[in-house]
Every structure is written in C-alpha cells, then in structure tokens.
Amino acid sequence: MLTTLIVAQVLSWIVILALGLALLALARQVGVLHMRVAPAGALTTAGGPSVGSTTKAIEATTIDGAHVHVGGPAPGAALRLLMFVSPSCPLCKNLIPMAKSFARDERVQLIFVGDDDLAAQRAMIEKQGLNGYQFINGPEVGQAYEVGKLPYAALLDADGVVLSKGLVNSREHLESLIVAHEMGVRSVQDYIKGITAEVA
C-alpha cells in the first residue's frame, strides 16, 4: 500500500511538471503570436472627403445655438478631431470617455457632431460631461463627410486637410488616426498592405 502511494505521488509530480512546461510553452507561443498580429486601426470608408484633401468650411449650429464653421482653414488651431456620435449608439457612449482622454493626452481639439433629437442629445451631454465641448447637432456635417455608421472620427489639421478618418470603437482606433498621420499614410491598414506587398 505504501508503495502504491509513493508511485501515485511521483506520477502526480511528473504530471504537474509536464503541465508547467506546457504552460510555459503556451505562454511563449502567445507572445510570438502577439508580436505577429498587425495593429488594429480605424476602418476607413470610401465616402466623404478623402485623406489628404482640403475640406470646405461647413456652416453649422452648436446645440447651444452658436453659429460655427466645421472644417476649412482655422489658422492657429491645433489638430481637430471630429467625433460623430449618437445617444442611441451604445459604442458611442463607451467611446466618449476614451475620446476625451485621447484628446487631452494628444492635445487635440475635440468637436462632437450628431444629428438626433435635441432632448436626447442634451441628456447624453449631461450624462457624459460634455458641457465644455463644442457639440454640433444637425445633418450638414454628417452629410458632407458621408458618415453612414457610428462612431466615426475625422482628424483635420489647421488648414482643414483631412489627415485620417474612419470608424472607431476603441482607444487604439483613435490612436491609429494620429499614427497614420505621423507615418504619412492614409490608414494603418494601407501601411500593413504595403508591408505585405513588399514581403511578397
């Protein structure tokens, strides 16, 4: 009986050591896969002003009734991020705090754009703490940029040039807009395609 217990104990230790080695090998493989996975970026769309084109100033009205121009040259302005959102979009509600943090960290002027019921927009502004941000509510800007799905973002420079744009649903996607601009490519996806073509 004692011999059986000793053999069982030895076998259990062998199994535990084998499992530990398997776990280390799996962790190493996950690390290798993580290095090979391409970075995710905002999904660019064909409609609206293309990346690299200069936008025209669009007359719009903020939710507080102020008349403003969206796009076009804004001398002395920082980079401008147009963030298209809606109170009926669950992803938008999750992304708004990330957009605020992103804009603060990257020193980007954040402008929210929507086209929805005024009461619903005001409720979202109150709940999300957007009172300090410019919020445009109307169809003009969304139609000009041909926004079909939300959340959507467009990054403009002081001359009104579209630096990058696309559908966004995470902080990583927002950051990819800046990365694409800094790398001088239309989108992160275009950069990845270029690398793939060079390798092939």
What do you see in this structure?
The longest helix has 35 residues, at 2-36. The chain folds into two domains: 1-37; 58-199, Glutaredoxin, CATH 3.40.30.10. The chain has helices at 2-36, 90-106, 118-128, 139-144, 171-183, 188-199, and strands spanning 58-61, 67-70, 80-84, 109-114, 134-137, 152-156, 162-167. Helices cover 47% and strands 17% of the residues. The protein contains six helices and seven strands. The mean pLDDT is 83. With 200 residues, it is α/β, with parallel strands linked by helices. The radius of gyration is 24 Å and the shape is elongated. A five-stranded mixed sheet has the order 5-4-3-6-7.
